[in-house]
Amino acid sequence: MKYYLVFLYIFTASFLFNLTISKQQENLFDQSKRLTHAIIHGEVHGNGTLPIEDKNSYLLVELRLSRDDRPRSIARNKIKFNNNNNNNNNITTQSFTLQFKLKYPLSKISPHNSYILSAKILNNQNKLIYIGDLHVPITERKNEQAKYLVINVIKTPSWYNNIDKLSLLAYKVTQWGGTEEAFTSELYTNKKSGIYTCVVCNSTLFSSKHKYNSGTGWPSFYQVAIEGNVATNIDRKYGMTRTEVHCAKCKAHLGHVFDDGPQPTYMRYCINGVALQFYSDENEMK
Ligand SMILES: *[C@@H]1O[C@H](CO)[C@@H](O)[C@H](O)[C@H]1NC(C)=O
Ligand SMILES: *[C@@H]1O[C@H](CO)[C@@H](O)[C@H](O)[C@H]1NC(C)=O
Ligand SMILES: *[C@@H]1O[C@H](CO)[C@@H](O)[C@H](O)[C@H]1NC(C)=O
Ligand SMILES: [Zn+2]
């Protein structure tokens, strides 16, 4: 299971929405016959129910090519609604299809990466209502056959809009598994009593009670604050096998865990400071 499958399985949707994509029907080669670009032909299908206040919603398809890429818009369409069908405060969409065609350079995608297609529904205030992300592993770049993938779009969780407010570094770290430079986080030397929450969804992750000076340059803890709030995956990037640590609620990447920590757990949660927010106990006592 890929860690990148960030938003697919958390909430259930009352709105069924399929993204069907046919990929790489055309590959483009340079003069020395190296593959340089691919053209994706895509199609998004959907129908469903939205609250009546979101009558002016539109569908947007976006692409990210690499870890550092902010989403780029590749297709956009207003959603049409059926007449005379509003019951309660809901309104039913017509079944819709959005087609797109996109040429993208393969050179910009790193070998450890996947590119990502997202389908989003936004209302007329540009507030995100639904999202589905499709992560296409890079190995499929070799596949020249047309292929169809279907995903369901999930109801957007409340914290999703916080992702856009992150600093670029926090974005790279939490959304793309990046790492801040050692000794750059103020939280590394923070000795105050309090809790550390997720910078994206504010879930409680670590406590000052379990923090220690590891000498590594990253905030380090020998255990998590609340069991179940922190989850792990095996990470085989850069030719190493490490245990990746992420927020169980929003899947934000936090850091890695190693088994060279202090007593009593012998664990070392090596965490990026930009992935955390610190809440001091002192504020509460005032
Ligand atoms: C329709 O609206 C009601 C509230 O008025 C809500 O409980 C229900 O889930 C909605 N149905 C759908 C299919 O979205
Ligand atoms: C709308 O979606 C439902 C599934 O929720 C599906 O059964 C139906 O065929 C769709 N209608 C159209 C016109 O696509
Ligand atoms: C985040 O969590 C902390 C600690 O539980 C809480 O004090 C704070 O109000 C929360 N912040 C937001 C914006 O919810
Ligand atoms: Zn989180």
TrEMBL record:
Matching Gene3D superfamilies: Peptide methionine sulfoxide reductase (2.170.150.20)
Pfam families assigned to the protein according to its UniProt record, in alphabetical order: SelR
Domain MsrB: 159-281
Gene Ontology annotations for the cellular component aspect, listed alphabetically: cytoplasm
Cofactor notes: Binds 1 zinc ion per subunit.
PROSITE patterns, per the entry: MSRB (PS51790)
The protein's required cofactors: Zn(2+)
Molecular functions per Gene Ontology: metal ion binding; peptide-methionine (R)-S-oxide reductase activity
Keywords: Metal-binding, Oxidoreductase, Signal, Zinc
Top-level class of the enzyme under EC nomenclature: oxidoreductase
InterPro entries the UniProt entry points to: Met_Sox_Rdtase_MsrB (IPR028427), Met_Sox_Rdtase_MsrB_dom (IPR002579), Mss4-like_sf (IPR011057)
EC number from the UniProt entry: 1.8.4.12
Signal peptide: 1-22
GO biological process: protein repair; response to oxidative stress
Reaction catalysis annotation: L-methionyl-[protein] + [thioredoxin]-disulfide + H2O = L-methionyl-(R)-S-oxide-[protein] + [thioredoxin]-dithiol
Its job: Methionine-sulfoxide reductase that specifically reduces methionine (R)-sulfoxide back to methionine. While in many cases methionine oxidation is the result of random oxidation following oxidative stress, methionine oxidation is also a post-translational modification that takes place on specific residues.
Protein family (similarity comment): Belongs to the MsrB Met sulfoxide reductase family.
NCBIfam families per UniProt: peptide-methionine (R)-S-oxide reductase MsrB
PANTHER family membership: METHIONINE SULFOXIDE REDUCTASE, METHIONINE-R-SULFOXIDE REDUCTASE B1
Protein name per the record: Peptide-methionine (R)-S-oxide reductase
The species this protein was found in: Rotaria sordida
Lineage: Eukaryota, Metazoa, Spiralia, Gnathifera, Rotifera
